[in-house]
Amino acid sequence: LLLSAPCRNHPNISLSCALRGDSQLVAMQTSSGPYSIGLRERTLHHQVCELLVDILPFKDRNKLSDEDLIYRFLIAADWNAEAAAQMLREYLQWRSQEKMDDVLDESFPDEIVQGYLVGIAGVDREGRPVYWTIPRQDLLSKHMPILGTPAALRWAFYAA
Which InterPro entries does this entry report, sorted A to Z (predicted)? Predict the structure, then answer.
């Protein structure tokens, strides 16, 4: 291990660099949220990579890295590599079907934008962001029959 430091943009993630056999430095994640990444976790990460080799690198515009995304799903699956791989595959399939990588480039009717108050309201006890949405009933009841649920749902994805 040559260097270890918190990620500049994401303080809950630590990064380190290791020297590979071919003398190249390779960045490796050393934590994800409150979890330390050690040999056991790296082994599980490698197992997930082997199960998902057909879809690596992952198509997710919002990911920090493929490595971090795998660790997040391993944590969610209680460190079960097969369950994490299945969940991650389903997540990426959903992102593809819903065209989630394109949602930030979309524009939305003013009726939707004005009809929803949304935002991040701080963090919970464990430091995770809290997302809230408050629909304005007067505007939504007027415009939803015209705009439809899909447009409102896309706006919710965009605003999150």
Answer: CRAL-TRIO_dom_sf (IPR036865), CRAL/TRIO_N_dom (IPR011074), CRAL/TRIO_N_dom_sf (IPR036273), PI/PC_transfer (IPR051026)
Q: Are residues 34 and 79 in the same domain?
A: yes
Dist CA 145 CA 112 (whole Å): 12
- How many independent structural domains does the chain possess? 2
Which contiguous run of DSSP H or E holds residue 134? Answer: strand 129-135
Give the separation between CA 159 and CA 142, rounded to whole angstroms. Answer: 21
The answer on 75 and 60 residing in a single domain is: yes
Full-model pTM:
0.66
Range of the domain at 146: 106-159
pLDDT, position 6: 47
Q: Are residues 95 and 110 in the same domain?
A: no
CA–CA distances in Å: residue 98 to residues 102, 126, 149, 150, 153: 9, 30, 14, 10, 10
Amino acid at 116: Y
Beta bridge partners of 27: 17
